[in-house]
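seq/struct pair 1
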Amino acid sequence: MTSIALLGAGGKMGYRLSKNLKGSRFDVRHVEISDAGRQRLKDDLAVDCVDQDAALDGADVVVLAVPDVLIGRISHGIDDKLSSSTMVMTLDPAAPFAGELPQRADRTYFITHPCHPPLFNDETTVEAKRDFFGGLHAKQHIVCALMQGPEDAYALGEEIGRTIYAPVMRSHRVTVEQMAILEPALSETTAATCVSVLREAMDEAVRRGVPPEAARDFLLGHLNIEIAILFEEFPGVFSDAANKAIKRAKDKIFQPDWKSVFEPEDVKQQIYDITRPD
């Protein structure tokens, strides 16, 4: 049985992983430093945590379910306690891309990250429809990268990814560099920023006298059809008026060189900024 040392098992992300790993084929050794997290695992999942050294002893895989800013310190702190065959897995590309992991040619590093349930889906139950994050009821896709290590290690890493993020539809194999483009450059730097501006725009409409419920219903309804058109879920096109409005507004809302956030050096700077303590 493949053994997994799960560090941060009672945290926000670690708890989700602990829940999905329960009953799997993996021998999971849960490590959690907070009393609240340990108690939650005990009460909700009937899981007893173990000492970190005991968890790492002979572990086949170590999953770092900890914040990005801690991955460098933790990975270096445990490195001499792992065998050369141990796979170290992170749940985000930021720290590995930034060079935070120990520079070991003999170490296998694997990264897996959820895409989260898609906007357009075939979910039918209330629980699945309201599972926006994924890993509980709604199906989602994932991305996986074998940063370094033997090719046959990929299958194990992907299997763990499919287990911890279940239920999973597609699993996409990408490089670490491509995953860094996906996050933070695409999903956070660009998409989350644009969405936050949408919320600010709705609040501005309300500030100018539009009833809050009307503003929310109008915006979310229009987003539904606009995204469906742009991402080819619906065989429609924008009206001439809408296209004119888009052309007129782009220079007002966006800097002409906004796509520079995808340049390699800019991506590196984004990751440097988010992996360093404030």
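seq/struct pair 2
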Amino acid sequence: MRSQHLPGLPVLTLDQGATIGHVRRCIVDPERKRVAALLIALPRFWGRRLLPMQSVHAMGSHAVTVPSADVLLPLRHDEKLAALLYEKRIPLIGSPVVTASGELVGTVRDFQLDQTGVISFLYVTGGLWRALSGREARVPASELMALGKDAVIVTEETLDRLAREREATGSNEPPTDGEAPWKAVAGRVRRRWLSPSGQAPPPAEQDQKPS
């Protein structure tokens, strides 16, 4: 399931079929590269609770199901989950994705998690990948080196793989000989959108109506 589908989903109990809250967001464990818990908003502004992923029965398109209301925990009931919620909070979505050599890949738009909370893919858009293809890219968990507060670090191979995927789809402007594919595309983007002075070109003047 993509994480963007979770916020707002009701949490239903299997024993009574009752709605005990709604999903607010995912609590990410950066060391294990997984979602450790879901932050749940209780009905009628009664506060918030944590739902550990091991207590989730299933995550569906309409609801998240749990065995009973007893699985919801106070925010500071578990020290590790409380630390992930407050001190070690990882935003993930919106974080820049950078290679180990410092090259920008793009920005995390979303991520895929399985029923146990393990993150299998990051969906990256913007930055270099937008220049390469104009759509989002999937970065698999095997290429993730670190999920940090300031950035997501991926392996050196990520950009090369994205460039190969771009080449496989065909391109009207092949890179020059001896130039890395992603550098050639980045150069074309700069030449297209920047004027010689380094400023974005002004918009085209509209035809004036005759007086």
